[in-house]
Design brief:
The chain has one domain: Orthogonal Bundle (MetI-like fold). It contains ten helices and no strands. Helix 5 packs antiparallel against helix 7. It starts with a helix and ends with a helix. It is a multi-pass membrane protein. Pfam families: BPD_transp_1. It is found in: Cell membrane.
């Protein structure tokens, strides 16, 4: 590839022709990230709500740790998950190292604190707004968790989208845990890194364009749902 413009045109051609390798990499990236987001949301939303509505010794410390975990270094998470999934690790018998399952696990570790921390503040605000009404119905804070999570579903979706955005753009953790194996654990971000180092700019650019499109779509969806939540609250 002699010029950047040639690489860009070839990347557009690959997308237009639905290049099989391109589609395979995109499909794996979406499957891994969406699975991780579902699991991370199942864990993170109740955890955030629990921290928002309960008071116990050490709660403030838990909140501080949770907020700090939003910025976990991906390579450190990858190393920890690698050690856990290695043959001598506690989960080594599952054989998840260098598999999509292991990549999902690494992303879940990264996503869950983000979803939990963002949902904690949303649920806390909802409890302040509806506390009197919910108590009049005989609901304690713990019993009100499901109600508040449902009522704040539009606002909470922003936390889920933030988790997905972190997952789909992740490279450090999954390249350590997944190994970047062609046709098996190669995602968009790891492929971009590899193909750029190889000089195959066409595939790297095509994947980059798709990744940017996904990122823009995520932000647009989060903004739309946030606006819908504000209109609903103002109604």
């Amino acid at each position: 590839m002699n010029t950047i413009s040639d690489a860009f045109l070839l990347s557009l051609q690959m997308m237009a022709q639905l290049d099989p390798e391109l589609l395979r990499i995109i499909g794996l990236s979406l499957r891994v990230s969406l699975t991780a987001v579902v699991i991370g949301s199942i864990l993170g939303l109740p955890l955030g709500a629990l921290l928002a509505l309960t008071r116990f010794p050490g709660r403030d410390a838990c909140v501080v740790v949770l907020n700090a975990c939003m910025g976990l270094p991906p390579v450190v998470v990858g190393l920890i998950v690698y050690l856990i999934l290695s043959r001598s690790g506690p989960l080594g018998t599952f054989g998840w190292l260098f598999t999509p399952a292991g990549m999902v696990m690494a992303q879940v570790v990264l996503i869950t604190p983000i979803v939990a921390a963002l949902s904690r503040q949303t649920v806390a605000d909802l409890w302040i707004e509806y506390e009197e009404q919910l108590r009049s119905l005989g609901l304690t804070p713990l019993k009100a968790i499901a109600t508040l999570l449902w009522d704040g579903r539009f606002s909470l979706s922003t936390a889920v989208f933030a988790g997905f955005g972190r997952a789909i753009a992740e490279v450090g953790a999954i390249i350590i845990v997944g190994g970047n194996i062609n046709g098996f654990t190669r995602t968009m971000t790891t492929a971009i890194s590899l193909e750029t180092s190889r000089g195959d700019l066409a595939l790297a650019m095509a994947l980059g364009i798709v990744l940017l499109a996904i990122a823009i779509s995520i932000n647009a969806a989060a903004s739309a749902l946030g606006n819908a939540a504000r209109r609903r609250q103002g109604a």
